[in-house]
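Now for a sample.
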Amino acid sequence: MFMHPRIFSLLIIYFLKGFLVSAQISVLGRAVDQISGRGLHAVSISFEGQSLHVYTDEGGYFIIENSMLKNPVLNLEFKGYNTLRIPLKWDVNKKEID
C-alpha cells in the first residue's frame, strides 16, 4: 500500500528580544495539514544543528526560542509527513514569514 506523503503548511511569526550579542528570537507558528487545514498536534520543531526542540500543542501552535543564529533553518518533523526545512532570514522590520 503506497501512501502519498503529506505536506505541512506553516505560518511563522517571530519576535526579536534583547540587544546585539544577547539577542533572542521567539518564533511562534502553527503547523497545519495543507489539505484539511487542521492544526497538527505533536509536530517536532527545532533549529537545524541545535539540540533544543519543542512540540506543537493540540491546535498545532508552537513557540521556540533561540539566540540569533547566522543562517537559521527551522525543521518540522511528523510521522507520515515530509520533513519541512524552512530557512529563515531575520529582518527586524518584518514580523511575519510566509
